Amino acid sequence: MKLYTRSGDAGQTSIIGGRVDKDDARIEAYGTIDELNSFVGQAASLIDADSETLADLKEELLQIQQELFDCGSDLAYAKLNEDRYKVGAELAERLEAWIDRHQTDNPPLEKFILPGGTSLAAVLHVCRTVCRRAERRAVTLARQHEVNADVLTYLNRLSDYFFAVARTANARMQVEDTEYLRSAKVFGRKS
């Protein structure tokens, strides 16, 4: 199998059910999801296979990589195709459960924090910001075409997950988050 087809040399690419320009909103959306998936892979690669402290995080990240492919696939349809969508509401609900679990284990948060800490946490913060960009691209696409709304919800929840899990990675490695010095107290801990 050849990796190149030459069919995109004039600036167009295939989607499910048609062809579009390579800078089409659909390509921007699932291309940014693909970029995010690469960073998630980088984050997962930073977790040693024998790490008991972070094993659950690696498992979650590998699952998220599969789901990001599903998100990209769902956005690649030229026409609405609900029968073939892979992303449903249950994926965002599962992310919420993971976020709640991580938040319970994380130290209290009162102020904004700077992205960083451990190498893993720093890459997870990159995942968070790229995820937010992917969500913005998907919102732009949704204004122009009908799309699977569950993908939008999933991406929104996923950026929250990356924030929570970056803090978990720091906490488990006993590295404190660095507070933004000029931040007011903006977060409250619910009982």
Shape, please? elongated
CATH architecture: Up-down Bundle
What is the CA–CA distance across the termini? 57 Å
- Across the major sheet, the strand order is 1-2
Give the beta-strand count: 4
Fraction of helical residues: 55-70%
* The level-1 CATH class: Mainly Alpha
- One letter per element, helices H and strands E, the order comes to EEHHHEHHE
Instruction: Tell me, rounded to a whole number, the average pLDDT.
Output: 92
Structural domains: how many:
1
What is the CATH superfamily label? Cobalamin adenosyltransferase-like
Number of helices: 5
Keywords: ATP-binding, Cobalamin biosynthesis, Nucleotide-binding, Transferase
Domain Cobalamin adenosyltransferase-like: 3-169
EC number: 2.5.1.17
Family: Belongs to the Cob(I)alamin adenosyltransferase family.
